[in-house]
Amino acid sequence: MKEKIEAVLAEIEALQCKTEAEIEEARVRLLGKKGEITALFEEFRSVAPELKREFGQKLNQLKNAAAAKIEAIKETLATTSTASSSFDATMPGDPYLLGSRHPVSIVRKEIVDIFRKFGYDVAEGPEIEDDWHVFEALNFPPEHPAREMQDTFFISAGHPDPILLRTHTSSVQVRAMEKLPLPIRIVCPGRVFRNEAISARAHCIFHQVEGLYIDENVTFADLKQAILLFVREMFGADASIRMRPSYFPFTEPSAEVDVSCNICHGKGCNICKGTGWLEIMGCGMVDPNVLEASGIDSKKYSGFAFGMGVERIAMLKWQVKDLRNYFENDLRFLREFETVI
Ligand code: DAH
Questions:
Q1: Looking at residues 99-123, what average pLDDT do you find?
Q2: What pLDDT, on the 0 to 100 scale, is given for residue 84?
Q3: Which residues pair with 271 in a beta bridge?
């Protein structure tokens, strides 16, 4: 019996397994119901009483050694099998990509938030419009040459009341004047459409934010102040503005607003084309004809309006040179704005 115990002990010491199945096979061979160690326990029954103590101890040691060896093999197999697979615990984790706002949305939100702070409400209107709201009520009579300034996409041309894609958000002014109680103080962000060839500087779809303030005794000085405050919030406290006389059918007088170049600070660079100024919006005092067309008494009320292109402001803010970047959804471009908001 002694030799048998030693033989099994040697077998346990030499035991090597490469797979789970081999471990199980060894366990059954040694410790199973018909296993070698179990058989030795059977044999132990017929051992002489004076030797029972010695063999009993030896057999128990043998059983424990087998169990311990099998456990140890299991453990090494578990660690080496993960190491030998493609899993590398030292590799850095995959970064979890966060979504981000589109740069146009970031700037639109910034513009709207500034005016909200000044007490303006947000108004929206339809993108598919009628001639009345886009042109007629804004003092563009039929055949007016100013209609040519905006290349319109018509859905039903030649119809007595053509349906079209709005060319500017000024149409929302008209809808607001028709239905809101006075005084009115709103900004209208929205998408607009023009039949233009797509280039670095023009696109057939872009975004505008329109502003409108109507009350008693609103003056051009109020307009200038509102725009200056906006520009300082948007471009920095040291920004200044200048206004150049302009023409829009719906405002009189009308002006084009320039902001001091935030890149060269007036010295002249290629962004401001050496002038030190960047054009950012159109504005003016709402033409009395426009107030009357929406049923507002132009003797009692006056107002100002302004309109700006969101992409244009975004281009100036981040010095994006090609407008098409905003519409191509190239992730390399969009990811540059991940940390902005
Ligand atoms: N609607 C004009 C455009 O799309 C922008 C504009 C200019 C809006 C002057 C205004 C304004 O409200 O007063 O070019």
A1: 95
A2: 57
A3: none
Over 80: is that where the pLDDT of 332 sits? yes
Atom of ligand 1 at shortest range from CA of 307: 8
pLDDT tens for residues 171-223? 999 999 999 999 999 999 999 999 989 998 889 999 999 999 999 999 999 99
Please say whether the beta carbons of 264 and 271 come within 8 A: yes
Note if the bond before 189 is cis, omega within 30 degrees. no
Query: Which of 140, 168, 243, 313 has the most ligand 1 atoms within 8 A of CB, as the residue to mutate?
Result: 168
Indicate whether residue 283 lines ligand 1 (CB < 6 A): yes
How far is 271 from 269, CA to CA, in rounded Å?
Answer: 6
Q: Is 307 in the pocket of ligand 1 (CB under 6 A)?
A: yes
pLDDT at 85 over 70: no
Options 3.90.1150.10, 3.20.20.140, 3.30.930.10, 3.50.50.60; CATH of 103-337: 3.30.930.10
Strands 302-309 and 277-286: what pairing? Answer: antiparallel
Report the relative pairing of strands 184-193 and 205-215 from DSSP bridges.
Answer: antiparallel
pLDDT at position 99: 81
Q: Where are the domains of the chain?
A: 2-86, 103-337
